[in-house]
Amino acid sequence: MNKKGRVTIPTDDSFIKETMEIVEAWGADAIRDCDGFKLPKEIKGIAEKIYSTYFVARGDNEWANKNRDELQQTYLMTKHILATCDTLEIDIMDGYFKEQVVPDSTHDIKKFWEVIDRTIEEVVSIEDWSYDKENQKVLIKNTKPWHEYTVSFLAYCIWDPTQMYNHITNNWGDKPHDIPFNVRGKKTNEYIFKAMHKWLDEHPDTDVIRFTTFFYHFTLVFNNLAKEKFVDWFGYSSSVSAEALEAFEEEKGYRLRPEDIIDKGYYNSTFRVPSKAYLDFMDFQQKYVAENVKKLVDIVHEHGREAMMFLGDNWIGTEPYGKYFESIGLDAVVGSVGNGATLRMISDIPGVKYTEGRFLPYFFPDTFYEGNDPTIEARENWLTARRAIMRKPVDRIGYGGYLSLAYKFPKFVDYVGKVCDEFRTIYENINNTKPYCGLKVAVLNSWGKLRTWQTHMVAHALWYKQIYTYLGVIEALSGMSVDVNFISFDDVKKEGIDKDIDVILNVGDAGTAFSGGENWRDEKLVSTLREWIYNGGGFIGIGEPTAELYGGHFFQLSDALGVDKELGFSLSTDKYFKDEVEKHFITEDVKSEIDFGEGMKNVYATKESTEIICNRNGDLMLSSNDYGKGRAIYIAGLPYSTENTRILYRSLYYASHKENEMKKWYCDDMNCEVSAYLEENKYAIINNSNEEVETFVYDGEGKAQLVLMKPAEIKWIEI
Description:
The protein is an alpha/beta fold and about 725 residues long. It is about 25% helix and about 25% strand. The protein folds into four domains: about 5-60 and about 170-230 and about 275-430, Glycosidases (TIM Barrel, Alpha-Beta Barrel), CATH 3.20.20.80; about 70-155 and about 235-270, Immunoglobulins (Immunoglobulin-like, Sandwich), CATH 2.60.40; about 440-660, Rossmann fold (3-Layer(aba) Sandwich), CATH 3.40.50; about 665-719, Immunoglobulin-like, CATH 2.60.40. Helix 5 runs parallel beside helix 8, helix 6 crosses helix 8 and helix 10 (about 375-390) packs parallel to helix 12 (about 410-430).
């Protein structure tokens, strides 16, 4: 196998000799810069490709300061403030970091701001409030005592939040604050294209322009202590501007209210069932971003370079799975890999020549300090992502930060060298072929294809108590031998269900975009799914699936699932079905108590036909129910683990009535998995653990052989 290539490394100032050592040790063929420094000229010739970071909408404070009326903007909402008499004064910047944002009073505040009586959800008349610019306070008259009020206001962004984070983390002291500017501004829009030409002329040694990213940062607002106040990696609230709101009205035929963006202070979190107005705004921004990014990419190509997009920072509007993305013509996308789900989020992106994953840990001092072992995080990150790589690899891997920090840890340097070699081996063996998929699975939620592999994420792949129970399902699927698709409720209503789909999953808490909320009041959606399951489809509901209190049910597909949730309204109705089955296909491999994560209280069986597989303290946790020719399974929650991955895998085959087909490419030991590449006439046995494992391995004809696997080993076998 090739011992060089497909690896990108960062470097530092005055670190040429050591960089050459790492290039040799890791087989790197590309070198990149990092926020905070630029590549020295001596780096040319050390690697085949040089990546240079390029900021379209920040990093040019001279321009920003000359055009303060064309800075980026964001919508913000004040705290809920209680009125105790008929007047009220609200300090709109209370709780916000004044070095990051400043109120916009340049544009007509009566047009772009909104004061709301939150107790009755009524907009306060513009005649009843005024703004004290000097003290940054809104004065409201004719208030109703004991009602709460908020102010929604446009603000200018005066410090890019990513640079701010890097600034604080690395203690950059007096380094200038990057001021982000608004590319919808007439002068700025003309300027960014001229600046692109100029930059390319001044950087002839750069082969790949790594856009970090384009125009609009995801929603990231800091509090008055310079700590994160609100972060939504999918948020569009910092893509607004007076210019955008005016253009939206002209294009879409109606005017957005501030509340359409503020959304009661939830800022249209990805967990909210999206409104029509918000979806329209997203579409409007995606179209604009695609059209203008294409112009930048065309300029890069005109200069004979490659254009790469970083899937982070100012990525809002690009939406790699959206309908405009492929029209941009990007050469590549690079993104940060936190787990298998984020790996697949990058590797499955259509319409680019290659994808690249930036692995952890990032070479920053919060990880690379004396006494810490960064190898531990690196090993966990690699093994977690490797499952997904075996299903759909990125084309390249890399690391970010300061190489001089990593260089001080020889054990880490040695381990990453082995990772790079293993990645190249995997990539060459797979050879761009699609692995065997035993089933076709669809994840059903409000977002569908637009947010492929992004289900239940908040700030990328960070852990949250409320979501690990559900994000575990997506993580398990990322490395599983099934074909995974993401479909929306609108898809089902408009197009029906693809006949090739074996199992549909609906996963999440009631009222969220992922469970579906009010979508389940739609007769067509419910009827279409009932008919599909009844005629042989498989359905798996996890958490509070199909949940919306309506028509005498909480779970709208409770008839198919054979379970419902007690909300206290039917306590007077006896519930007789509580006995567990003695054994079941789904839990055949379970050796310890099942981890349902946060689980679910008060779910109960509604019919005698429901197979109760696990009851815990009177609460149903796992069940199955035959429904016509189909089958529906309920699971209270499923955090990521090897055992839960096996439970889900068996559930998928059981739901689809294909139990007899499960042991084709299969390992008895749940620590191991098989990926078969039939076009290449080979298959791989993967040990996902750091322990030695002995397992029976089944080939495509169901024949088994006993195999001994070393810790974290991959065995490649010719068919």
